[in-house]
Amino acid sequence: MNSITTPTYAVHFNEKAYVALNKHLAKANYSKIFVLVDENTHNCCLPIFMSKIEGEYDFEIIEIEEGEINKNITTCTQVWEVLSELDADRKSAMINLGGGVVTDLGGFVASCFKRGIDFINVPTTLLSMVDASVGGKTGVDLGPLKNQVGVINQPQIVVVDTDYLNTLDQRQLNSGYAEMLKHGLISNASYWETLKGNTSFDNLDEYILTSVSIKNEVVQQDPTEQHLRKILNYGHTLGHAVESYFLESEEHDLLLHGEAIAIGMILEGYLSFKLTGLSKNALEDIKATFLGRYKKISFGQKDIDTILGLLKFDKKNSHGNINFVLLKSIGEPAIDIKVAPELLEQAFAYYAE
């Protein structure tokens, strides 16, 4: 797999990635290297990662609790305190070995500590490989509200080793696959058709490369999400609200990110049918594809009211307006679309049909 280059760093794959990483570490001469993990990646991924390192370095392992519920400022403070206690300086570096929680939080911690130290991302979930590996978004949640605090800051290098996918269960793989399906919906109808027909996770290396390339092309044109990059948020306006609601609800089990975004893509597919010209056949295709992969969730009116109330916190909002990314057709998005409240209720009714 060929590396993907951005203006400031590269995403490297599999064994080539470790060659590039070892060259970088040898050249950088870091005073200390901190490896951020959660409980799962500490046990399942850290031994693999350390076996690939050539040379002698001063490594310190920092472990955080796993899960989106721990992606917050409190965890950041704990990591900053450990960095201070272990004498990290501005020539130290942080390697974030984990899924999106670890790479998002670790990138933010590194970006703020002593006004910024180098960080390297080693995504270990399918979701983080195709989503967090490109774009430089770092940050944490504010309570249940997704990604409210953060900065855009680029890593030094990204290591994508698809062998880490062997540590994941089917549910985690499906969560990441939702973001890949999104890449087809917003940019490439042929890719959408290919992915939706792949029910056994075959050819994942090839598809990961395609998804990372799609995201990289978008981000290079709009690094700070002023215009085009917004298309990557298809399904995320309502999907993030659903995810946030399930994070704080005592009556429902947690949803993984991809599971919530899959719901969001059906809901926003309906809005696209009503507002931006998406055909009925395309809408039904989107709904059937996601409900064929992801468990259907039952929403009561109280659930819906609370979820819609969370939309005011979406990061794309401006001047009091909630802005949606919708689809004109599969592969053709439209940005900054305003939606009447009654259509949002209708979208949930369509999902429930």
Automatic annotation (TrEMBL):
The 3-dehydroquinate synthase C-terminal domain covers 176-317
Q: Which Pfam families match?
A: DHQ_synthase, DHQS_C
User: Keywords in UniProt for this one?
Assistant: Cobalt, Lyase, Metal-binding, NAD, Nucleotide-binding, Zinc
* Keyword Chloroplast tagged: no
User: Which Enzyme Commission number(s) are on file for it?
Assistant: 4.2.3.4
Q: What does this protein do?
A: Catalyzes the conversion of 3-deoxy-D-arabino-heptulosonate 7-phosphate (DAHP) to dehydroquinate (DHQ).
Q: What is this protein called?
A: 3-dehydroquinate synthase
Ranked from the top, the taxonomy reads: Bacteria, Pseudomonadati, Bacteroidota, Flavobacteriia, Flavobacteriales
